[in-house]
Amino acid sequence: MIEKTTAATGFDDLLAANRDYADSFDLAGFDGIARAGVAIVTCMDSRIDPLGLVGLRPGDAKIFRNPGGRVGSDALEALVLATHLLGVQRILVVPHTRCAMASNSEAELRDRVGAGAGKDASWMTFHAIADQEQALREDLAKVRSHPLIAEGTETAGFIYDVDTGLLRRVD
Known about the structure:
About 35% of the residues lie in helices and about 15% in strands. The protein is built from six helices and five strands, in the order ααββαβαααββ. The longest helix is centred in the C-terminal third of the chain and has 14 residues, at about 130-145. The chain has a single domain, classed as Carbonic anhydrase (Beta-carbonic Anhydrase, Chain A). It is globular and about 45 Å long. The protein is α/β, with parallel strands linked by helices. The mean pLDDT is about 95. It starts with 6 loop residues before the first helix and ends with a strand. It has helices at about 5-10, 10-25, 75-85, 100-105, 105-115, 130-145; strands at about 40-45, 60-65, 90-95, 155-160, 165-170.
């Protein structure tokens, strides 16, 4: 079993990078309003640059990430707040190709996590996605029908191709 490292030794590289980042930091005093009026719900996958894939920069959009890029209760909460308090007028829901959540069954995810943890994971729910396009359509319906999403908010769904960088609209 791999021993967990402490903050004193395991984060030095990241803290050094943060000092470099802070040297050119230019968002001081920014009010947190999404300058482009955009919110993006997408997967936590590290192959996704949610701002870059639509030509935006820090400060332009609100980003909500989770496994599979699904719209659950936490994402809906974020979107309600974003459309009323943070200037969001357009919502993109963006899952992606070759997603582990859509490439494994619930049982397979439990087995893989359990094997990696060396513990029983049969009690954990990972929300595997059997049909990614259908799941996206259901998520779009959740957003569009939510009574507290600001009236007039535009919502669209896209599948991001991690091999080409292109978005394919699904509605």
